[in-house]
């Protein structure tokens, strides 16, 4: 028989399993199955609404049709797994994602662009809706979600306008079926309105032509929303170091500290115009950032700190073709500033310009 582990260890194991499940749920291969799309019924009123819904339901994510705060929109929720009290069980809840995708009918979009173009020309547009006021209303109604707008058929509209213009200029006015009344806007009007929209609200507009493209766009958007936490976590947790001729292979550091020297070398190589030979020359004298900082503290002046590394020799090549140069004052100063500056806006390249010619000669002089 096996002795049952203490209750505290069982709880710890359950907590670890729950945490592992929550981390796994964020990974690209699994995150989509934890997403729920909420689709406003207004999006399904179109002739091909059923086909759009079928295309969305064929993905890994779940779909539900429910009325949204913003009509003709899609929002997202994520299933979150959390360890329960004492680690005895796990709990699940749904977290709202801060995004809303809104379909704007072409007629409404053209009207809003036309209103803004009239406003720019000085006309009285009080009480009328522009893209900026429409987007602001979405922000007010969607609890801080970031809106993204989708417009269908704009290119077809411009093609129709072009054909109509050619017909009118030719004097040929064939009988046509009565069409819906449309305001006339140009591509320039649209571009000006979009620039104003992005500058004032930051809202982006995507132009599509078919409902299949619309369904594909929602699927891509869903994938991007689902993978966002994983990508942000990776960016915060890791700093990618790359070494010449080694591609993007990661440096593994074990518990004994093996691998830290290579990480330190790669960190130095993040500077512009710094080769592996130059980085290895520095770490041969100062094998860790801590030792380099200690050396800076022992210097008696700012000038001495900036030139601390300048005289370190750098050997390039082997045999009769080998050559030797020095680190030089430029790189020495850049490393010093990077290691000691507390200014997050400091540009090391500005300081480089004072010594570029000296460094290129490689004489290490002032």
UniProtKB/TrEMBL annotation:
Signal sequence annotation: none
Cellular component aspect of the GO annotation: Holliday junction resolvase complex; nucleus
GO BP terms: double-strand break repair; mitotic intra-S DNA damage checkpoint signaling; replication fork processing; resolution of meiotic recombination intermediates
Domain ERCC4: 36-297
Gene3D superfamilies per record: Crossover junction endonuclease EME1, DNA-binding domain (1.10.150.670), ERCC4, Mus81-Eme1 complex, nuclease domain, subdomain 1 (3.40.1620.30), ERCC4, Mus81-Eme1 complex, nuclease domain, subdomain 2 (4.10.800.30)
Keywords, sorted A to Z: DNA damage, DNA recombination, DNA repair, Endonuclease, Hydrolase, Magnesium, Meiosis, Metal-binding, Nuclease, Nucleus
Alphabetical list of InterPro entries matching this protein: EME1/EME2_C (IPR042530), EME1_nucdom_sub1 (IPR043086), Eme1_nucdom_sub2 (IPR043087), ERCC4_domain (IPR006166), Mms4/EME1/EME2 (IPR033310), XPF_nuclease_EME1_vertebrates (IPR047522)
CDD domains, alphabetized: XPF_nuclease_EME1
Entries under Pfam families matching the protein: EME1-MUS81_C (PF21292), ERCC4 (PF02732)
MF-aspect GO terms: crossover junction DNA endonuclease activity; DNA binding; metal ion binding
Cofactor(s) named in the record: Mg(2+)
Family per record: Belongs to the EME1/MMS4 family.
The protein's name in its UniProt record: Essential meiotic endonuclease 1-like 1
Native organism taxonomy: Eukaryota, Metazoa, Chordata, Craniata, Vertebrata
């Amino acid at each position: 028989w096996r002795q049952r582990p203490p209750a505290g260890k069982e709880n710890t194991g359950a907590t670890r399993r729950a945490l592992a499940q929550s981390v796994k749920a964020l990974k690209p291969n699994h995150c989509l199955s934890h997403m729920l799309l909420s689709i406003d019924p207004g999006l399904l009123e179109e002739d091909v609404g059923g086909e759009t819904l079928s295309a969305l339901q064929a993905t890994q994510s779940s779909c539900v049709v429910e009325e949204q705060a913003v009509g003709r929109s899609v929002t997202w929720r994520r299933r979150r797994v959390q360890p329960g009290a004492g680690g005895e069980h796990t709990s699940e809840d749904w977290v709202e994602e801060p995004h809303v995708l809104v379909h704007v009918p072409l007629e409404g979009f053209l009207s809003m662009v036309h209103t803004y173009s009239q406003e720019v020309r000085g006309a009285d547009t009080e009480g009328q809706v522009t893209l900026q006021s429409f987007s602001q209303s979405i922000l007010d109604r969607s609890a801080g979600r970031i809106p993204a707008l989708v417009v269908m058929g704009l290119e077809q509209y411009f093609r129709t306008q072009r054909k109509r213009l050619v017909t009118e200029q030719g004097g040929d006015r064939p009988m046509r079926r009565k069409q819906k009344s449309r305001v006339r806007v140009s591509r320039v009007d649209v571009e000006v309105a979009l620039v104003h929209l992005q500058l004032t609200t930051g809202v982006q507009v995507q132009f599509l032509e078919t409902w299949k493209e619309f369904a594909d766009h929602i699927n891509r958007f869903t994938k991007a929303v689902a993978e966002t936490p994983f990508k942000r976590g990776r960016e915060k947790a890791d700093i990618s170091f790359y070494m010449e001729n080694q591609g993007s292979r990661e440096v593994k550091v074990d518990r004994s500290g093996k691998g830290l020297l290579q990480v330190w070398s790669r960190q130095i190589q993040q500077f512009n115009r710094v080769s592996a030979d130059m980085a290895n020359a520095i770490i041969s004298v100062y094998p860790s950032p801590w030792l380099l900082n200690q050396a800076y503290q022992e210097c008696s002046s700012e000038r001495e700190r900036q030139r601390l590394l300048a005289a370190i020799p750098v050997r390039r090549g082997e045999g009769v073709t080998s050559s030797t140069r020095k680190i030089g004052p430029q790189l020495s100063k850049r490393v010093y500033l990077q290691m000691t500056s507390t200014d997050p806006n400091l540009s090391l390249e500005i300081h480089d310009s004072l010594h570029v010619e000296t460094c290129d000669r490689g004489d290490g002089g002032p």
